[in-house]
Amino acid sequence: MNIEVTRGPGLRTHLPYETMKAVVVEEYGAPLKIKEVPKPVAGLGEVIVKTIAAGLCHTDIHAAHGDWPVKPKLPLIPGHEGIGIVESLGQGVTNLQVGDRVAVPWLGYACGECEYCNTGWETLCEKQLNTGYFMDGSYAEYVRAYARMVVKVPDGVDSFEAAPLTCAGVTTYKAVKMSGARPSDLVAVFGVGGLGHLALQYARIAGASVAAVDLYGDKLELARELGADYTINAGWKDPIGEIKKLGGADTAIVLAVSPQACEQAYKSLRRGGTLVLVGLPADNFMQLPIFETVLNGIKIVGSIVGTRTDLAEVFELHAAGKTKVIYEKRKIETVNEDYAAVEMGLVKARLVYEF
Ligand code: NAD
Ligand code: ZN
Ligand code: ZN
User: Fold this and answer.
1) To test ligand 1's pocket by mutation, which of 278, 283, 301, 343 has the most ligand atoms within 8 angstroms of CB?
2) What is the mean pLDDT of residues 199-212?
3) Residue 269 belongs to what H/E stretch?
4) pTM of the model
5) 256 lines ligand 1 (CB under 6 A)
């Protein structure tokens, strides 16, 4: 296909470009568009990945709305739960081969040189770039990625299951690790969506008991199927009182897109408990009483995705049959309806785009 390219002021030319189908955010809060855009070409240290599956994370919705204090680039191709096959290699790529099946995660670039990168905290690298936010993502037939940032998907892991593991999985695996949950602990999981349905499984793998909280009955039913010991519908019952009746939570992990859920999770903790904040509502603030936090010895932890090594561990657990990924397939043409369905709580766990 020939597309018109603008080269500097007034200089227009028609070049033969290869194109691809992609979802594009052109304006915050406007409907997403399906467009033919130029297919990316691999530069130094980069690869082109032909997409097989791409999960819809609630972060993609925040990005399209421009919900957060730091805004994504525009125009933007969303998606940071991409699984695909390496189609071509840029110069200098030695860690991958054409044909490898890889995950393209949120951490699209980390410098590899700073104190964070070199102490196992690449997720805090100040030079990081994020896929589907500052770099184009996987809601497209092809995605360009830094070769050293993608993670190989083991043979035993299905691509459509690998997709949600690439963000929802690694993020909640890390959150459970950060909580330090132990076998005698009660872990409260607030929000049983894409992230929450995996969080409760990692808490169970750590040996803890789980109380799952959501506003929808079918999500709580899923939580029970996946091993939650207790379920609480926060639309009907006060989750603080219900969790206190169980002795209070040692850890509460918040995956709900709601400051109110953060406050409830905080109040459901027992003394010495840990609040792990993961969900990122547009409304950025919660009430936090200083007196109770101090006297009760509460720990508050912010947890952001996970490293490449965390993701490799997540895949290893899944290949060993220890986790279940609940998803439904979609085609990118329904992206606007899909975003609305996720926002209305109508999706059981995860939607995954099929290419
Ligand atoms: P999701 O929409 O699939 O799940 C959210 C769940 O929370 C839904 O089941 C919903 O019914 C439930 N919920 C909403 N309000 C609630 C309330 N008041 N009490 C209890 N449950 C409630 O979203 P997701 O893809 O799982 O993402 C969740 C959040 O995590 C988003 O804000 C996303 O941006 C964020 N996120 C953070 C990280 C990170 O690294 N920190 C990574 C990925 C996603
Ligand atoms: Zn995500
Ligand atoms: Zn760094």
Assistant:
1) 278
2) 98
3) strand 269-277
4) 0.95
5) yes
